[in-house]
Amino acid sequence: MNILLWVLQIVLALHTITGAIWKFSNSEQTVASLNAIPHVAWVALSIIEILCGLGLILAVLNKSLGKLIPFAAFGIALEMVLFCALTIFSGDMNYTHMIYWIIVAGLSAFIAYGRIVLKPL
Q1: Cα separation of 51 and 74, whole Å?
Q2: pLDDT per residue over 49-87, tens digit each?
Q3: Burial track 47-77 (b if 16+ CB lie within 10 A, e otherwise)
Q4: Strand, coil or helix: what is 1?
């Protein structure tokens, strides 16, 4: 289980950091349902994503930083749920992004659960 969690953490960290870099180079206007997010919040989300991505893998360097993993995973899941809520309340009927965000949120929640209950560091 520990190996599976580490593989998922690395994949999610790469995904999240890549998403943060994408947010720096693209506007919130790129996805119609996210138009409600102010640009300052969009940039802040990018910074939070980078910190969460690092929080998922910093335990490799120092085992005591393993306590950050559930918080980082929960932060990513919370952001994905926020994006889903914005899509629902925006009236945008294109739910393809939502399916993706729900999958990422589920993966993040599994990592948080795994590190708290199944195989803590």
Answers
A1: 12
A2: 999 999 999 988 888 888 999 999 999 999 999 989 988
A3: ebbbbbbebbbbbeeeeeeeebbbebbbbbb
A4: coil
Q: What is the pTM of this model?
A: 0.88
Contact 42, 27 (CB under 8 A): yes
Contacts 24+ apart (CB under 8 A), 54-62: 54/13, 54/17, 56/9, 56/10, 56/12, 56/13, 56/16, 56/111, 57/9, 57/10, 57/13, 59/121
C-alpha distances (whole Å) from 11 to each of 31, 40, 91 are 23, 27, 32
How many domains in the chain? 1
Domain range for 33: 2-118
